Amino acid sequence: MNNYILAIETSCDETAMAIIDSQQQILAHVLVSQINEFESLGGVVPEMASRFHEQEIFKVYQEVLKKAKKTITQIDAIAVTYGPGLIGSLLVGINFANSLSLIYGIKLVPVNHMQAHIYSLKLENNFTFPLLSLIISGGHTELVLSTKSLEFTLLGSTLDDAIGESYDKIARLLDLGYPGGPLIEQLAKLGKPGLMLPLAKHDQSLDFSFSGLKSATYNLVNQAKMKNVELSPEDVAYAFEKSIIKTILYKLRLATSRNKYQSLGIVGGVSANQTIIRAITENFDDVIVPQIEYATDNAAMIAIIGLELFNQNIFTKKFLNAKPNLIVEDKWNN
Ligand code: KG4
Ligand code: ZN
Q1: Which of 164, 155, 117 is CA-nearest to residue 301?
Q2: Which of 135, 167, 205, 243 is buried deepest, with most CB atoms within 10 A?
C-alpha cells in the first residue's frame, strides 16, 4: 500500500511543504522564501518571519496538495519540524499541523530540523553507514556521526558563530545584502590572494569557532576605512572564504582520522557553496552533498526523514510543541 506524507517546514524564513510517497518519490515541493523581505535588513527579524509564515502557510498548503494531485484525506501522516529554530516561526508550522491532525485525525511525525539536513542526502544519492556529516548552515556548524538509521552522535560544534552566520555578517560588513553566503561566494571568485586573515580554532578539538575570524575581518575593513586605504571587497571575500575552507579541511582531517566512515556528507545551506564543496571533494573520498535546492531549508528533507520516522512508527501521542533549542542528538520523546 502506498502511503503519503505531508511535510511542513517553517523553522526560520522559509515556508515550505512537500508530499512524499512510500517509494521516496517527492510528488510535490513548494517553498516561499522571505529572502527579499530581509535583504535590506541584513538578516532575519523573528517577529516579521512568523507573521510572514502566517500569511503564506495556507497558500503553500493548497498549492502542494494541488501539485501532488492529492486531497488532505489521502494523507497518512504529517511530518513537521518542531526544532531547532525561531520559536514564533516553528509554532506557525506546528499549529497548522496540530490543527490538521485534530480535524482530519492524521498522525503527526515530529522532525528534528538538524537531522533532516543530514537526511537531505538521501534525496539524491543515498548514504552508507557509518555516515560522517558536516552540517554547515545559518544557525549551526556541527560534525555528526551516524552508525545506523536515525542515530546521531555529535562530535563537535561551533562555540560561537555558525559558518553561514559568519558569511552573513561579513556580507553585511561589505554592504552586500542578505543572505550573504552566495554573494560572498561570487565576490570571492573575483578576488586575489594577498590579504591575511587568521585560521579559526586550529587545535585538536572537533569544535569550531569563527568569532576570531569575524573580528579580524571587521578590523581589517574598518582600519582600512579609517586610514582611507582602498581595500577590494573581492579580496576580503577571497581571504575570508579561504580561511573558512582551510578550517573546514583541517577539522574534517581530524574527524576522518578519528572516525571510520563510508559516506562523508556535507549538508546545510553553506553546502550550496561550490568553492567549498570542490575543496572538500579534492581532499576526501566518498563525499556526498544534497542537490543545491535541498541544501538550504526546504520541506523535501523533512519529508524524507519523516518517511523514515513513519516507517519506524515514531509519532506524537498528542499535540506537538516547539523545541527551539533541540540538538541533533535529541530523539523524539513523547
Ligand atoms: O540551512 P539554511 O538554509 O538555514 C539554516 O538552517 O540555518 O542555511 C542558510 C545559510 C545562510 O547563512 C546563507 O548565507 C548560507 O546558508 N548559504 C551560503 C551559500 N548559500 C547559502 N553560504 C555560503 N555559500 C553559499 N553559496
Ligand atoms: Zn536549516
Answers
A1: 117
A2: 167
Average pLDDT, the chain: 95
Measured from the CB, is residue 121 less than 6 Å from ligand 1? no
Whole-angstrom distance, CA of residue 199 vs CA of residue 246 = 7
Give dist(CA 164, CA 159) in Å, integer: 14
270, 278, 292, 326: residue to mutate for ligand 1 pocket, most atoms within 8 A of CB: 270
pTM above 0.85, yes or no: yes
pLDDT tens, residue by residue, 159-186: 999 999 999 999 999 999 888 999 999 9
Integer Cα distance of 113 and 69 in angstroms: 27
DSSP letter for 312, please.
T
Closest CA relative to residue 111, chosen from 271, 295, 322, 293: 322
Tens-digit pLDDT profile for residues 195-209: 989 887 788 999 999
180 lines ligand 1 (CB under 6 A): yes
- Tell me the sheet residues that pair with 30: 17
Is 269 touching ligand 1 by the criterion CB < 6 Å? yes
How far does residue 147's CA lie from ligand 1's centre (Å)?
27
Three-state DSSP state, 11: coil
User: Given phi > 0 = left and psi -120 to 50 = alpha, else beta, which region is 85?
Assistant: left
Which residue has 535588513 as its cell numbers?
41
Q: What number of H helices and E strands is found in the chain?
A: 10, 10
CA distance 62 to 129: 37
Strands 263-267 and 153-157: unpaired
The gap from C-alpha 16 to its chain's centroid, in whole angstroms, comes to 13
Ligand 1 proximity of 308 Cβ (cutoff 6 Å): no
